[in-house]
Write a structure and sequence with these properties.
The complex is a heterodimer of chains A (about 260) and B (about 280). By secondary structure, chain A is mainly α. Chain A has twelve helices and no strands. The longest helix of chain B is centred in the N-terminal third of the chain and has 33 residues. Classes of the chains: A mainly alpha (about 260), B mainly alpha (about 280).
Chain lengths: ~260, ~280
């Protein structure tokens, strides 16, 4: 069936609406002018350079980066065994646990942060960093379980059964037969979780505190008194970074199948 | 006696379940139970009555519902337009376009929303163009309005419905549409009688994601709505941060969770093919 021209026009319009803001942010961030404008007053990297020199932003970047790596590793450590159990071992109460581990997806993030702060962090005197790590890990568990379970579903059960018949222990069968075959799924789960944690705002909003702030929260705090293109430059930089990660991941393992 | 593999399964799931229960569910349950406790410790709905007695709270509640509904409606319409065009593409370009639709999901919402500030600000693109062509004397206030929040949320959430609609429409039998056309059906009949029923599942999944995403969004209303266009999440933040008003926060939490659950039930009903207000489909 040939495409009708109006359908193509409508699709292009939707894509422009989805991606246009990104082009605008790159344009505004590369401006050579003193104020935030689009179209930019000449192109330069001066604001990209300037924003990289801001200490609080660099500090926040370091926190966001390490938080994303650690919470992703934590969520994988919890999520891979759970996904394997759900897909292969038919444990009692599977439905309830499946509902439990996906619950963080449906509750507003800001509330998660608030509840954790009020009834866990303050009463037990937990520090800001461990609190952020806990909340992000809980938030990411549903993603790792879902993505790893999806790739286990596509893997035939016979090969691990064969390994066990040939004398491998269940653990050996998992590590040397199953793991290599779901590597792509695990990498996809890592990337998805990393990006989710790195971009996360609502959960961290109440938990972040003096001196310990994540990058997106630091950006939000600066927007109200920033009239130069520095935040746009930083936004463009972050967007390009995500695009690069997604592009490489898509080429290597077809990330969009897991979203 | 439970068989050994099933028991092993339970042990493998236990850490994830225990962690989420402890770090997420327990604090949340304590917070929510507080919303049904009056100041004197009595159980009841007093806090809800107090919440809705305040005209500002009522306004914010209705606005959140309104914006959630409009964003969902617009994404369903645009989502179908885009998804129908995407499934008509040849497989190669289909993959590329799906990649382009997925891309925004991965970009920081703060960065994406900031683009609207560049566009709609006092010295932004829209105002400069309007001024250039002499439509306006003074810059229009476009930011911190409801339409700004609507646009920002629509842009943020639209991919979440396009993707499930594409997977649902891909499963529609290839010759169903040409067959209907040959039998004289117009495009509206084809959509309502064939494409819509066969893509209901995608509509349900995507609709829930968009509606829930819209009513629980924080970044977009905070950046594009500010204190002038509060939604429930920004109201919650303001109440806790400015006046340490946990009572209101617990009520808002319960309302948001309830709204998500109701929306999910309604859209699942649609997805299962039972139109609202009618009995079981025959």
């Amino acid at each position: 069936m040939t495409m009708r021209p109006w359908a193509i026009a409508a699709l292009v319009a939707v894509l422009l609406f989805l991606l246009g803001p990104f082009l605008i942010i790159v344009g505004a961030g590369l401006s050579a002018g003193e104020t935030l404008t689009f179209p930019p007053e000449g192109l330069s990297l001066r604001w990209v350079w300037a924003v990289l020199q801001v200490d609080t932003l660099r500090h926040a970047f370091a926190i966001s980066f390490s938080l994303a790596v650690l919470s992703t590793l934590g969520a994988l450590a919890l999520g891979i065994p759970a996904a394997y159990a759900l897909e292969r071992l038919d444990p009692p109460g599977a439905g309830a646990i499946r509902a439990l581990v996906t619950a963080p997806l449906v509750v507003p993030g800001i509330v998660v942060g608030l509840a954790l702060l009020r009834y866990f962090v303050i009463p037990l005197g937990i520090g800001i960093r461990p609190a952020l790590l806990m909340s992000h890990t809980a938030l990411l568990v549903p993603y790792t379980v879902r993505v790893v379970a999806a790739s286990l579903r596509n893997l035939r059960v016979d090969i691990e059964e064969a390994a066990i018949l040939l004398g491998a222990s269940p653990l050996t069968a998992f590590v040397s037969v199953v793991m290599p075959n779901i590597r792509n799924g695990i990498v996809a789960a890592f990337i998805l979780s990393f990006i989710t944690s790195f971009n996360q705002v609502p959960v961290s909003l109440f938990l972040a505190g003096p001196g310990v702030s994540t990058l997106p929260i630091e950006m939000l705090a600066r927007i109200d008194f920033t009239y130069d293109p520095s935040i746009a430059a930083l936004s463009a930089l972050l967007a390009l970074l995500s695009i690069a990660i997604v592009f490489v991941a898509e080429r290597l393992l077809g990330l969009s199948r897991y979203v | 006696m439970i068989a050994a593999p099933r028991l092993r399964g339970l042990l493998l799931m236990a850490p994830a379940g225990a962690f989420v229960a402890l770090a997420f569910l327990l604090p949340l349950a304590i917070l929510l139970s507080g919303s049904f406790q009056a100041e004197d410790g009595q159980l009841g709905v007093q806090r809800y009555v107090q919440f809705f007695a305040d005209p500002l709270n009522r306004e914010v509640f209705l606005r959140t519902l309104r914006i959630g509904f409009l964003v969902t409606l617009a994404s369903v319409i645009l989502g179908y337009v885009a998804a129908l065009a995407i499934v008509d593409l040849d497989p190669g370009s289909r993959g590329r376009v799906i990649g382009l639709v997925t891309l925004p999901i991965m970009i920081s919402p703060v960065a994406r929303t900031y683009a609207w500030i560049v566009l709609l600000g006092r010295t932004g693109l829209v105002n400069s163009v309007a001024h250039e062509f002499g439509f306006t004397d003074a810059p229009l206030r476009l930011l911190y309005t409801e339409p700004a929040v609507f646009l920002g949320l629509l842009q943020l959430l639209l991919p979440l419905i396009i993707l499930p609609l594409v997977s649902a429409l891909e499963n529609v039998p290839r010759d169903a549409v040409p067959a209907a056309r040959m039998l004289g059906a117009g495009w509206w009949t084809i959509f309502v009688r064939i494409l819509l029923p066969l893509s209901r599942e995608g509509l349900g999944v995507g609709g829930v994601l968009v509606f829930t995403g819209a009513i629980t969004a924080y970044i977009t209303p905070a950046m594009l709505g500010g204190a002038k266009v509060l939604m429930l999440e920004t109201l919650l933040y303001q109440r806790v941060n400015v006046t340490d008003d946990i009572a209101t926060a617990t009520v808002i939490t319960a309302l948001l969770v309830a709204m998500s659950v109701v929306a999910k039930a309604l859209l699942n009903r649609i997805a299962r093919g039972r139109p609202l207000g009618r009995g079981r489909a025959r």
